[in-house]
Amino acid sequence: MKRIFLALLRRILGGFALLLGASFIIYMTVRAAPGDAIDAISPMGTPPEVKAQLMAEFGLDRGPLAGYGVWALRSLCGDFGDSLVFAPGERVMAVALPAFGRTLLLAGGALLVCLCFALLWAACNPGGSRRSQLLGASLYGVTSAPSFVIAVAFAQAVNELVYRLVDARGFVTPSWYPIPIACSSMMPYLFAGITLILSDGLLIDLVNYLRSELQALRRSPFIAAIRAKGARVTGHLLKNMVVPILSAYASRLPVVLGGVVIVEYVFTLDGAGYVLLEASKNRDFPMVVGLSVLFTALVILVNIISDVVKGWLDAREVAHGG
Amino acid sequence: MGGDHPSQECKAPSTPGSKKLRSLPLGLYLSGGIVALVFLLGLIAPLIPYDPAAAVDYQRQLAGPSWSHLLGCDGQGRDIALRIVKGTEAFFWPGILAMTIAVIGGAACGACAGYMRGWVGQAVRGLMQLLDTLPRLVFIVLLCTILDPGMYLIATTAGVLFIPTIAAICRRKVETLASEDYILAHIAHGFHPAWILGYHILWLQCRPLLIRQACTVFSYVLFVETALSYLGDYGVQEPWPSWGNMVAQTREGVGFWPWFVPAVMIVVSIAALLAFGNAIARREEAMR
Amino acid sequence: MRPLLRVRDLTVVFDTAEGQRKVVDGVSFAVGMGETLGILGESGSGKTISSSAVLGLIDDTPGVCGGEIVFTQGDHEISLLEGLDTCVTQRPDGLYVKDNRRWMQHVRRVMTPIWGCGMTAVFQNPRQCLDPLERIGAQVEESVGLAAPHLTAAERMQAALDWLQKVQMRDPLRVYRSYPHELSGGMCQRAMIAIALARHPALLIADEPTTGLDTTVRAEIVALFHSLIQESQASMIYISHDIREVLYLASRVIVMRSGRVLEEATSEDLLLGRGTRHPYTATLLHAADLPTGQVSETV
Question: How far is the C-alpha of B165 from the C-alpha of B132, rounded, in Å?
Answer without folding.
Answer: 7
